[in-house]
Specification:
alpha/beta; 236 residues; 10 helices
C-alpha cells in the first residue's frame, strides 16, 4: 500500500482550533445546564446550523397577480427601489401592483436589517448623485449630509420611506448565527452571489419566506421566487 500524504501544519492547526471550539462549546453548555447537557447540546445543534438546501427553485410571474394565502414574503432591495421610485416601465410597475395585492391579502410582508440598510444607503447615494454632479466618487457625501440643507432634506425623505416600510411590514433580523456566517462568507468569495444576497437567501430558507426579487443571480437559490425578470422566468 502507498503511504498517505501527511497533513500540513495549517491543516493540523485548523483541526486543533475546530476541536478546541467544540470543547469550549460543550463546557459552556454544561455550565448552563449540567443535568440536561445531552438534550441541550442536541437542541443547540438543531438551532445553529445552515438551512438545508432545496432541490429546485420555483419561479412565479409577478404580473400574474397574487395567488398565495397565509404566506410570508421578503422583498429584495431592488424591488423596494422599484416600488418607492415609481418606475413606470411595466415590468417594474408590476412589483408595485404585486405589493398592493399582498397588502390587501392575508399574507405577511417581511423586511430584515440587511434589506432596510441597503435600501437606505442606496437611496441616499442616488439622491446625492442627482443633487451633485461635481463629486462622482461621492467623497463629500458624509460632510454634505451633515451640512447641506437640500441633501439633508432628501435623506430625511429616505428615512421617512424606511419608517413607512417598518410600519407596513413585519421586521425580522436576519437569522444568521456565527457558524452559518462562516459558510456564507466562503460562498460569497466564489462570486456567484453577494454576501447580502446570501444572507437574504438564508433568511428565506430558515423562515420559509417567498422571495420577491428582480435579481437574476437567484436563479438557482432553491427558494420560491416572485419576479418579472425574463431571465428568471425563462422567457426570451
Amino acid at each position: 500500500m502507498g503511504s498517505s500524504a501527511k497533513p500540513t501544519s495549517a491543516v493540523i492547526l485548523r483541526l486543533l482550533w475546530t476541536q478546541s471550539r467544540g470543547i469550549w462549546l460543550d463546557f459552556s453548555l454544561w455550565l448552563i445546564a449540567p443535568r440536561n447537557f445531552s438534550k441541550t447540546r442536541k437542541k443547540f445543534n438543531r438551532l445553529f446550523k445552515p438551512a438545508p438546501a432545496s432541490t429546485m427553485t420555483k419561479i412565479y410571474d409577478a404580473t400574474a397577480g397574487c395567488p398565495f394565502a397565509t404566506r410570508t414574503f421578503l422583498l429584495d432591495t431592488n424591488v423596494w427601489i422599484y416600488i418607492d421610485g415609481g418606475d413606470p416601465r411595466p415590468h417594474f410597475a408590476a412589483y408595485s401592483d404585486f405589493y398592493g395585492s399582498l397588502r390587501r391579502s392575508d399574507n405577511v410582508i417581511v423586511v430584515n436589517d440587511y434589506v432596510l440598510g441597503e435600501f437606505f444607503n442606496r437611496a441616499c447615494r442616488t439622491a446625492y448623485s442627482f443633487l451633485f454632479d461635481d463629486d462622482p466618487e461621492m467623497r463629500l457625501l458624509k460632510s454634505r449630509r451633515r451640512n447641506d440643507a437640500d441633501f439633508r432634506m432628501q435623506v430625511e425623505t429616505v428615512r421617512d420611506t424606511c419608517l413607512n416600510i417598518l410600519d407596513e411590514c413585519k421586521y425580522e433580523p436576519a437569522p444568521v448565527p456565527s457558524n452559518v456566517y462562516h459558510a456564507l462568507l466562503t460562498e460569497a468569495a466564489q462570486g456567484h452571489l453577494d454576501l447580502s444576497d446570501l444572507v437574504i437567501r438564508e433568511h428565506c430558507k430558515v423562515q420559509g419566506h417567498i422571495l420577491v426579487t428582480h435579481d437574476a443571480d437567484y436563479a438557482n437559490c432553491g427558494l420560491e421566487v416572485v419576479t418579472t425578470n425574463k431571465k428568471l422566468l425563462g422567457m426570451p
